[in-house]
Amino acid sequence: MGNIKLCKDCKYFVQHYIKFGRKFTETNYGHCIYPRMKNRKMMQVICEHFTQRK
Known about the structure:
This protein is mainly β. Helices cover 0% and strands 41% of the residues.
């Protein structure tokens, strides 16, 4: 599983969080902001717009 590219590694992926008390915790979801906003799971296989996050 070493070279599989996932949405969570893309610079266009925005992570979603939930708040528990005073802390924020990552969810398994987020959204993609390029070329238009769409819901994504962080472990989803990438689309054609993937750009590696630095």
